[in-house]
Design a protein that fits this description.
The protein has about 90 residues and is mostly helical. Helix 1 crosses helix 4. The longest helix is centred in the last third of the chain and has 14 residues. It has one domain. The protein contains four helices and no strands. The mean pLDDT is about 85.
Length: about 90
């Protein structure tokens, strides 16, 4: 998709009143390549998703810088699947 047509993933969906963490996790996914995102499978176990991403802390939260709150696996999956749909993958 040409850059001019690419949605602003950090602010979508516009129906949410997003905090700093919401924006950070969306920015995190926006930096993943299409090929990497195509690997993801919704039927994977939580442990498999955590291993696939490789950026989760030992307490089970996604490792992000400058966040107001933790992103656990259920929220991670919800935002990831939404992001994949927005990128039409």
């Amino acid at each position: 998709m040409p850059a001019a047509e690419e949605p602003n993933y950090e602010t979508l969906p516009d129906t949410l009143n997003m905090d700093e963490t919401d924006i950070s996790v969306r920015a995190y996914f926006s930096r993943m390549s299409d090929d990497r995102l195509r690997e993801y499978r919704a039927d994977w176990t939580d442990d498999r998703v955590i291993a696939w991403d490789g950026n989760f802390r030992s307490d089970g939260a996604l490792m992000l810088v400058c966040c107001e709150r933790d992103v656990e696996i259920a929220e991670y999956r919800q935002i990831l699947e939404e992001h994949i749909r927005l990128r039409r993958l």
